[in-house]
Amino acid sequence: MMNMYNNITKSLKINCWPSFIPLKIFQNNCFITHKKYISVLANELRSGNIFFHNDKYCEVTEQRQIKQGRLATTNMIYFIDLSTLKSSSVKFACQAKVDKIEPIKVNVRIQYTDKQKNIVVCLDQNYEDVEIPMSIFGVSEEHLEPGMEISVFKHDDKIIKVNLPSSLLATLRKK
């Protein structure tokens, strides 16, 4: 059974064991189920990683280990809450585990913005409509133009982050 699992993972070019739950056998059918997150120690988080904390998606901006006297080491994580785009911080114990998210990146092209519904309608590579709430864009929503390409990060078919093109970021920094 494990040999079949190895063959499947090799054919899919998957070498990451922690991201998969072992085979589940149901009525002589084998299923591989993909985990939604990876549980890692808090000191393994690096800048740019996305983790799930208090039912919110957070992006790490900085990670420090703090040691005071003879006390155990604590990990101070500075992050941006992706739902509100506000920065915050949290302390974790030295052996605390967090749920690290590995989102799927999809490139989309903006079609139009619907200000009544507060959404931006985009097309993906398969020409399917993708509706993105304007709240994810923050202050850049008024600078969005049709035809602009953006990168969308999804987890569980939920949009958690949007990367804007560098030309738009440059104009926003000037203001």
TrEMBL record:
SUPFAM superfamilies: Nucleic acid-binding proteins (SSF50249), Translation proteins SH3-like domain (SSF50104). It comes from the Eukaryota. Residues 105-160 form the Translation elongation factor P/YeiP central domain. Pfam families: EFP. GO terms for cellular component: cytoplasm. One of its GO terms (molecular function) is translation elongation factor activity. InterPro entries: NA-bd_OB-fold (IPR012340), Transl_elong_fac_P/YeiP (IPR020599), Transl_elong_P/YeiP_cen (IPR001059), Translation_prot_SH3-like_sf (IPR008991). This is Translation elongation factor P/YeiP central domain-containing protein. It comes from Plasmodium berghei (strain Anka).
